[in-house]
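Inputs:
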Amino acid sequence: MSVLPTDSLATPRFCGVPTFMRLPQATSLEGLDAAIIGLPSDSGAPFRTGARFAPNAVRAMSIMLRPINPYRGGINVFERLRVADAGDAAVVPGYLEETLAQIETAVRALAQAGLTPFGIGGDHSVTLAELRAVAATHGPLALIQFDSHSDTWDSYFAGKKYSAGTPFRRGVEEGIIDPSHSIQIGMRGSLFAPDDVSQSLDLGYEVVTTDAMFEMGLPALAQHIAARTAGRPAFLTFDLDFVDPAAAPGVQTPESGGPNARETLALLRALKDINLVGADVVELSPGFDQPAQITALLAATVMAELIALRADR
Amino acid sequence: MSVLPTDSLATPRFCGVPTFMRLPQATSLEGLDAAIIGLPSDSGAPFRTGARFAPNAVRAMSIMLRPINPYRGGINVFERLRVADAGDAAVVPGYLEETLAQIETAVRALAQAGLTPFGIGGDHSVTLAELRAVAATHGPLALIQFDSHSDTWDSYFAGKKYSAGTPFRRGVEEGIIDPSHSIQIGMRGSLFAPDDVSQSLDLGYEVVTTDAMFEMGLPALAQHIAARTAGRPAFLTFDLDFVDPAAAPGVQTPESGGPNARETLALLRALKDINLVGADVVELSPGFDQPAQITALLAATVMAELIALRADR
Amino acid sequence: MSVLPTDSLATPRFCGVPTFMRLPQATSLEGLDAAIIGLPSDSGAPFRTGARFAPNAVRAMSIMLRPINPYRGGINVFERLRVADAGDAAVVPGYLEETLAQIETAVRALAQAGLTPFGIGGDHSVTLAELRAVAATHGPLALIQFDSHSDTWDSYFAGKKYSAGTPFRRGVEEGIIDPSHSIQIGMRGSLFAPDDVSQSLDLGYEVVTTDAMFEMGLPALAQHIAARTAGRPAFLTFDLDFVDPAAAPGVQTPESGGPNARETLALLRALKDINLVGADVVELSPGFDQPAQITALLAATVMAELIALRADR
Amino acid sequence: MSVLPTDSLATPRFCGVPTFMRLPQATSLEGLDAAIIGLPSDSGAPFRTGARFAPNAVRAMSIMLRPINPYRGGINVFERLRVADAGDAAVVPGYLEETLAQIETAVRALAQAGLTPFGIGGDHSVTLAELRAVAATHGPLALIQFDSHSDTWDSYFAGKKYSAGTPFRRGVEEGIIDPSHSIQIGMRGSLFAPDDVSQSLDLGYEVVTTDAMFEMGLPALAQHIAARTAGRPAFLTFDLDFVDPAAAPGVQTPESGGPNARETLALLRALKDINLVGADVVELSPGFDQPAQITALLAATVMAELIALRADR
Amino acid sequence: MSVLPTDSLATPRFCGVPTFMRLPQATSLEGLDAAIIGLPSDSGAPFRTGARFAPNAVRAMSIMLRPINPYRGGINVFERLRVADAGDAAVVPGYLEETLAQIETAVRALAQAGLTPFGIGGDHSVTLAELRAVAATHGPLALIQFDSHSDTWDSYFAGKKYSAGTPFRRGVEEGIIDPSHSIQIGMRGSLFAPDDVSQSLDLGYEVVTTDAMFEMGLPALAQHIAARTAGRPAFLTFDLDFVDPAAAPGVQTPESGGPNARETLALLRALKDINLVGADVVELSPGFDQPAQITALLAATVMAELIALRADR
Amino acid sequence: MSVLPTDSLATPRFCGVPTFMRLPQATSLEGLDAAIIGLPSDSGAPFRTGARFAPNAVRAMSIMLRPINPYRGGINVFERLRVADAGDAAVVPGYLEETLAQIETAVRALAQAGLTPFGIGGDHSVTLAELRAVAATHGPLALIQFDSHSDTWDSYFAGKKYSAGTPFRRGVEEGIIDPSHSIQIGMRGSLFAPDDVSQSLDLGYEVVTTDAMFEMGLPALAQHIAARTAGRPAFLTFDLDFVDPAAAPGVQTPESGGPNARETLALLRALKDINLVGADVVELSPGFDQPAQITALLAATVMAELIALRADR
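Outputs:
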């Protein structure tokens, strides 16, 4: 099995069933370093649904991407790292907790086989399942969360503990996130309650708001993230609403006033020395990304940068 | 409180927060004969989500409708029947069974107060909750189901008993539907399994496929529906995928080859002598109905005809 | 100046600034039999605006059409009738009455020069201006109105006498429509007031509802229209909401349950022996016709059939 | 009557008919400090119509917003300021001057009762009506105008004095704007005539172009605005085309090259010590904001910041 | 390798990379009876491009379809016929003739291995390549063409012989179509030149216009098609513009006034006793099919019926 | 013939068939200094087609622009430079090389008559044809290329030498570009092959990546461009994918992470002392620019700045 993507100078990108970046489909996990896995659930979404269609929407735009990353020395990422597209986890629409269990099972299989999972959400509730799966192999994880919302509320409608708004409180409670090495980046906008400001801090997270991020400067922030997570296996979760709605309109809960795509990619490209053991890109809602699908393209580009970060490990 | 809609010759339709047909909002149930109630859940949807936004999408297009129904003698429907918009039931995204319980509670309040509930879905799973609520007051119900799918499968993903594909098996099992007075109209298209053909018949339903419907003729079918349900309180559920996707593109699970809007409305306008104690219009997915929102307009028009059918009781 | 359209077998349709059917632009009126004129006003619209963009939207799709009409003996319409695109009348947004005056002036210039004007609306209020202009040359007109609404209300918001809902009462009052030779075809749907049913009849119009139209049969109706208007110069106004929203989604005030495109075109192609002195196609709202623009294509096709009807005079 | 918004952690945002930020609907003005009022007119628009649908489009996205504003000390805005949604003013489509009169009447009722009106346009012509209404209570107003165009032309088509392009010349002529304490911010792009550059200056306004704004720096500009308007009751009008089309695509007359959403919100959040007696957000054209509705979300976010500015007064 | 589609009652349809009807991907041709093959070229399109994205757009909606066909005795089509998805042929954008050569090569491999190819276009020029490939194995073919245009022009722009408008003249000239057993169904609309009417007849085709089709009646037409093609291996080509734009908006060259989806499917389901050796569905232009993708759904449904026709052979 | 655009204060912009900026259509070339020419080809596009519709899409939004350019001293551009809209070159869909020949012929006629051609693409392959035409009059050209991709690959699919990805290698090989005075600005994103980095440098171009552009600063870069091209007739080609997809979603091959519209326009407005003999704006794909058409507006604004740059020569 070739482990290189199909060459888009030889056959047009639009030919064939699209896998992520035209990578081969995984027929077994043997010999692989990493795998793409779709997590097509929107059962945890409090606002716009549709993230169940996100994995294939990201794949469809990822065919635009090419294998050489000039921001990390011009390496061919897929010569360094053997990556395949492992398809999607199964889900149970309308049954969030069963869905999380199924996602955990699918991701656990990858992690146990020594692969780094790269998840394509799905709403942000799926990250809890991934964290459970990856922590089972690697122990408590340093979380690097790019997001405009902290997602550390205690419960949502009818007191339910699971939703896209609660995973990073649950993860601390379950001992699978080590908040003392974790950092949340990009918070902004209006809040539900006065103690929203402090709830992440109270859990032990470091919080860098969008305003603070620009005050600190992106290169300094990149270094700071490495320092914060040093010595820990890290999981990076990228909620697309981190980015301003102008550049990422197709998300579940857009929040006006974020960084643009250039700033976002510059930050990710400046990251170094992260012991990345898992990552995801979540919250794409393809129905709100029509017709140009620029959010899906950005999601694919972010994912490609995260794979390059891992290849650079 | 006025019980008549705002007059769209006096103030433009687009002025003000839209209620169904510009009816007054219900501040109490007293003195009302019927109420509109939104059921904004898509937790039961196996394919396209978004029906949580359907109640307000239907309201937004219902402002096109006027109170006089020329197909039932030119009556002013709202002089006959005092109707208000009762807002939406609460729901619990990602928790289908809790959602059904909350919907049942909300609809039960209407039925117990003697009102006829007119529900705006929501995916088709919500109808089970409505049937439970209405049957609690009226006893086992004659079901009149317009739909391209029978929705009588036993279970869906992971063996779950509740979804948009199962309510009309559950309703029979729970004794709230009397299948011997019930009828399913409009089935068509490909099937999952050989016994799909017989599963509704085995439960006791009469089934009229789309092809059979046109062979029988619409006026004869209308008479037949009245005969089938005679002597029973009836609940009419209208799944918008009954209609061809050309006229109803914005649905959860479109099925090519259905009747058009004119045929659909002709059939509904020909219905008479139904002891209607509840009704709903379900499965609108507004994100797939842009920009012209013709499915929402049709949904509103169908609902107005069902209210007129009730006013004509 | 050539009077034939550009040949779309020789240069692709999408080349060049689009005129109606790729006809030449009128540089003078001399030698012309008829002219296309855009009437880009939506100041009379009670619901969806945007008809100001309709003339160019119709032109953009009209490039699909070819000059030979096989439904009238395979004639090359533009060898029979010298037609040019005369551009658009000027309008005054926000000032409906001044807008009507400017439209009247522009159309009057065509009619006085002996041309048959073919207007592309604009909301339906523009037809009053056209009728005034054409009647100035031809005297009281037989009106042939395809429409789902009668547009014969007395006044709209704040008692204003001019709007898309009133022109065919005003036209009778002003003596420019002869209602005894006029006919309204396609009325359907809910009504504002009990006397809506009778208001057109009281003015002297014949009214054929959508239901009546199908009962009568389309060929019989075509003959009946000719008989009704016999002996009078006729103006044919085609409101696109005559057609079902499935086939004409991009209109100001869609009304569910109309004829489809095939039925509509069959009726128009069956018309004969009409002394057509003017016509228009109105109420396209292009923003609601995206992305396929099927309403604009239908509008252009209807207009081409009306020109062929005139060529066949 | 509760004066707090519905809690979106308790019931999902998409439940119920949407008012601005899920605030209560005003049943009387008593006890209120401020009110939201929709101004659904596009009769003054020289280009894209559709702003008549803007008030409800802004409401629909405003449900994303939460009551705590972390940019002004974490205050719960609605504990400081009692605000309700007062519905929409009536309008007369096609009759701009009558429309302005009806809007003035509606806003005057709020101002006279001591409330600060927060208007949701509507094209920019509606601001003249608001200024008339508010000045009747407060006297000549300091205008703070965010806009890419000055809107100080003398007349538009056919010499008409009223349109979205003229209100801020009319306001000075009528003595309801005090230009010596007023400021226009954000002008850019091509111009109609050489004296366009000077026309606002000649009227007495201070003008800060987009380029000048960034040269000055946003914090300095915020201070400057306060100084310019000091000692005067101020009306702030926010035309969404101030923002770059990437972040605000859904406007009447987009102008390339403006600030992004982050810069825009930073400027508004830096404003202090303004004696705000009225404000509006105008020129949203929802049909051009599909499907993600990011302009409506930004409009709602801007409005929430303006209410917070007033609460901070 | 399983030859049955993934069961959509067990795992949700939206899970996994979509193949046609969730069929297995072909890893070899051995043991297969038929194969789906995408033909992603729009280099022959004279109007709307985008058909290069059609194969994956059809796959994406085909996941709605289920394996049991109730219109042919309730057979499980894929128990009768072993079918796999063979991916896409390669193409050379901007070089139509090289593209046709590459398509021919890909389809020839299927036909030579004894498989029936089911092609998903692509614009209609691709059918010439398929005919060449299939005729190489089966000899001159009976063509069954559903289309609103005859596509028998001699040449297009600059005298070029290949385009979506010429394949069925070329096929006769090349001796790969036997016109005396061939039939074109659905022609309608305006024409380029007077001899357009006769050009297909002159080549030897039978032509059934849309009007003639309804006069004859659909069951009679189905029988007639079988009689016309009797004794010959048949290739069925389905141009989606055969259908009215209301039901098939997303096509290259829409033509108002065609049959609806129900009539179309009824005709295909009535076909029997055709010796089908190849088929295609062409001319989908997905960018014009948003957001509901009803044309892609119809395309997939038509293809499923054609596979069932072959299974019923 | 007037050489000034129609005044949009006198007649609304939306009236009349749209030419670029409402300029007169060229009836002859005499007396003109420059001409707009549409180049409606997408036969060279390796990804999204649709650029054939770009010239008219740019015209449709260009009506927003006004003749006075305040960034170059408030000049009325069209009093300095007599410009007309020369319509579109003919093209041969599916035959890229013949298309390039037809475009070259059309542009050569302008250049030979002493006009500066301003081309509206079309995909980027059209620039090669323009360069051939302009170099025939002016000799080897200094190329100023704004683009996120270098477009200097040797060949694309099946070894073909012509495509949107190859023109700037071909131009050097043909001797019509002088690379030693040429500059490529804006490259970014992932690459096909390790030597992608060096291929433009090897050809002799100067390359300024997006990152380098911001490090250098926009005013310095503008000066540097003038210095690099000094002494040579210059052709400026603007590929809209230079801009970030947030501001230019409607392009053939979007690339995340570019400059925004304000930065882009600032750079163009800072350009001076360029001996501009031709220019184009390419790669708009209007189907992906709906509904707000902000890419088309930006394309028109860029073109207006390029005309102003020429007027300032």
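Remarks. Residues 21-312 of chain C form a domain with the Arginase; Chain A fold (CATH 3.40.800.10). The beta strands of chain C are 34-39, 68-69, 75-76, 83-88, 116-121, 142-146, 183-187, 206-209, 234-239, 276-282.
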